[in-house]
Amino acid sequence: MGGVDVLPCGHAANAADFRGCAHLVVERPPDHYGWFTGVGLEYDRLCGECAKLDEPRSCLAVVCLGCADRVDEYSELLGWIGRPEVRHHDTAARGVWTTADCAVEPVNDRCVAALPGGWLVLTGAGLVEVDRDGARFVAPVSVTASPTEDDPHDPPRLALHTSPDGRHAAVVTDFGRYGVVLDLVTGDPVLSLDRGDYHYRQTCFPLVFPTPGVVVTATDWNRLDAFDPASGRLLTGRETSWSGEGPAPEHYLDYFHGALLADPSGRRVLDDGWVWSPFGMPVVLDVAAWLGGDAYATEHGMDLSARDCWDLPVAWVDDHTVALQPIGRYDRPPLAGVEVYDVLRGRRVGAFAGPVGRMWGHDGLLYVGTPAGLEIWAPEEGARTGVVEGFTPNAHNPRTGRFAELAGGRLRTWTPATP
Ligand SMILES: [Zn+2]
Ligand SMILES: [Zn+2]
Fold first, then answer.
1. How far apart, in whole angstroms, are the C-alpha atoms of residue 23 and residue 415?
2. Are 355 and 337 in contact (CB under 8 A)?
3. Which residues pair with 323 in a beta bridge?
4. Domain co-membership, 28 together with 139
5. Mean pLDDT comparison of 7-16, 150-159, 236-245, highest-scoring range
6. Which of 3, 10, 164, 211 has the fewest other C-beta atoms within 10 Å?
């Protein structure tokens, strides 16, 4: 006899063999642990008893793909042992610096935003524009305070957004209910924002300026609307309500909107919201189709994943690729790192361990703020390719690629060199 190799599990060997302990190769496998092999995110599967051993390697046997699939299907992954491979292929991070004295103090690190020629800052006194040449007061801002509660979840926090052309800004309350859109030329408030009182404490305030002349924001827990900020005109009138009696209408949306993030061209928006039970559910919305007449496009977005978290760093790598932290699903322990999704196909196309921190995407790369500096990660390699040491930006201009760090009486900017 020859030709067919038989594995210890009793089945024929095939190309993608996994390793696991013998106790998992049964009709009803017990719950298991993942033990990282040190190669990428690959791991071996161990039962609870074998996971407690000092040297579990002796328990491992190669199992066939079918047996590994049965473990993944019927047995819960309870935890991780060891660490996955984190790839560092660092070279010198090249870019252009500017530095200027700047005594302007943002309310928090979400209160600096890009303008075409500089940066807008929300200070205790209102909006201030800063650049290399100095600072200029723009307008006072008043936002209705959200009721405070004894809640261990994130406390309400002001956040600043700007339109791509620099004409409008929004000051909103993350984990709060209210906000305001202002005209930066006149300094006047042009739209007051209220997303209703249902579970607003759970997410950042949903608001984005995808393109000049359009602001998209939540007007209820499960409804987004687009407005023309110049006129205040509603661009997306439609019926979305449901009394709760009888079957739900075709376009009823059972989804809590969260932080909104536009792709580089402003066509699509990532919605970092959630659903009961609760699961995080990042959804991609075709805003261009919505504004072009597909009235219910934001009721029928494409969900990417069901996760046990939301309001963690997300970024667009390019117009059709989204990166999410951490690596995780609703049914398994999260892992520090990034998942990469193709938003045209709605599919996860990659994952790699390592990145943790506030994240921006630009020109196919990910930039991750850490206490040590700004890390640069290449999603295609799944590796870190550089660190801008000692630089912890609080804003990014998605059009120029420039980062700004406004802190300690100084404005520093860094623009990555184009490869
Ligand atoms: Zn075992
Ligand atoms: Zn088998």
1. 54
2. yes
3. 315, 340
4. no
5. 236-245
6. 3
Same domain, 215 and 331: yes
Of the candidates 34, 56, 85, which is a domain's last residue?
A: 85
Q: How far is the CA of 46 from the centre of ligand 1 (A)?
A: 5
Cβ–Cβ < 8 Å for 221, 200: yes
Co-location of 116 and 70 in the same domain: no
H-only helix segments in 252-386: 287-291
Distance from Cα 15 to the centre of ligand 2, integer Å? 13
Q: Is the model's pLDDT at 372 over the cut of 60?
A: yes
- The 3-state DSSP class for residue 14 equals coil
User: 182 and 77 in one domain?
Assistant: no
Q: How many CB atoms lie within 10 A of CB 22?
A: 14
Domain of 271, CATH number, reads 2.130.10.10
Q: Span 293-309, mean pLDDT?
A: 96
Residue 412 lies in a domain: yes
Which ligand number lies closest to the CA of residue 29?
1
Ligand 2 centroid to 38 CA: how many Å? 24
Q: Report how far ligand 1's centroid is from the alpha carbon of 13 (Å).
A: 21
Give the C-alpha separation, 69 to 66, whole Å. Answer: 5
The answer on 56 and 141 residing in a single domain is no
Give distance in angstroms: CA of 62 to centre of ligand 2. Answer: 9
pLDDT of the residue at 1: 43
What six digits make up the tokens of 230?
């110049």
pLDDT of residue 374: 98
Give the model's confidence band at 149: pLDDT under 50 very low, under 70 low, under 90 confident, else very high: low
| pLDDT in the model for residue 145 | 86
pLDDT reported for residue 152: 61
Question: Stretch 282-305: mean pLDDT, rounded?
Answer: 97
Q: Is residue 4 part of a domain?
A: no
Given CA atoms 40, 46, 50, 56 in this order, what sign does their dihedral have?
negative
Domain count, the chain: 2
In terms of domains, do 66 and 105 share one? no
| Between 398 and 14, residue with greater pLDDT | 398
* Position 6 in a domain: no
Instruction: Supply the range of the domain harboring residue 110.
Output: 95-416
- Boundary residue ending a domain (59, 85, 111): 85
What is the reported pLDDT for 151?
64
- Find the 41 Cα to ligand 1 centroid distance in Å: 21
133 and 75 within one domain: no
108: its two tokens: 């928090």
pLDDT at 219: 97
Ligand nearest to the CA of 12: 2
CB atoms closer than 10 angstroms to residue 389: 10
- Same domain? For 139 and 235 the reply is yes
